[in-house]
Amino acid sequence: MQCTDVHDRFLFRLITKKAFLYTEMVTTNAIIHGKCLNQLKFNNKIEHPVAVQLGGSEPDDLAECAKICSSLGYDEINLNVGCPSERVQKGSFGACLMEDPYLVNECIQAMQEVTSIPITVKCRIGVNKRDDQDFLNNFVRKIFNSKFKTLIVHARVAILKGLTPRQNRQIPPLKYENVYQLKKEFPELEIVINGGIKNIEESLIHLEKVDGVMLGRTPYDNPMIVSDIDSRLFNEVDIGSDRKTILKEYLDYCRDQNNHGEPYSRTLKHVFGLNRGLKNAKAFRSLILETMQKNNLEVTQSDLVSLV
Ligand SMILES: Cc1cc2nc3c(=O)[nH]c(=O)nc-3n(C[C@H](O)[C@H](O)[C@H](O)COP(=O)(O)O)c2cc1C
Questions:
Q1: 197 lines ligand 1 (CB under 6 A)
Q2: How far apart are CA 276 and CA 299, in angstroms?
Q3: The model scores a pTM over 0.90
Q4: Taking the CB of the first residue and of the last residue of the chain, which one, N or C, has fewer CB atoms within 10 A?
Q5: Which residues are catalytic?
Q6: Residue 264 pLDDT
């Protein structure tokens, strides 16, 4: 949905060196028919570690895409087994694949055969009425193999009929306990928990039970939330740049991109939340919007920097 695109990941690399970044889902059809190659673009110099997420359910197609993605230099290939959208269901991939773990297993193996980079999966705790532990454990048992090391679990069921994707991120209750229990059942598997995690403090609590946390909306809406994760979660020195420095560097990047034909609407939208919660947040957002609409940064740049 053009959130964690190449520009957004550039912004995040100005804030954290260590967080593992993920692309948005790119479908195998799009890659094979050469439609969305833009979505696969990434900055090999600064983005690592970075994973590409694939959407698909044809083992041969996934293998072909895995080859392409590993030759591009991605550090991990993640298979989407969590998206509940109708469009994705029509293509028989995403969350509905949780009902067919044998096929998921085939998909994983097909990709493992053609590349040595890790193949991981992002799934839900279940689908429709199956939000019980047995369903999740059984799914994982069937996809597990010696080369399969990491599973990301969004701790909600996916309701495949009657809820929009947005509602599917809000209405089904979070059941973190199912994910913790999964870790107990599969201690050798790296389990990353996702869903509703708001900050580092909450992340640290989850990390007592599982191996990793994935945050989606919170850092997208408020990127500075991850400015101290390198020290607090990875025991490394933070980049330590303040908001103004980050914004200045990002605006330089936006200008450079614009000189190469990328409209400001594609790059600037990612900084809407840079000073979220602070006193000038509203004025900043309005000026970003104006800059995007006029597709001209020259007149607003210094005002933007003064507002963060
Ligand atoms: C606009 C939007 C687009 C998303 N696109 C994807 C996607 O392409 N692949 C995916 O696995 N999850 C996608 N998600 C779901 C998030 O990765 C995440 O699982 C979900 O938002 C719950 O985590 P959170 O509460 O930290 O946001 C998307 C979420 C949003 C809000």
A1: yes
A2: 23
A3: yes
A4: N
A5: 83
A6: 97
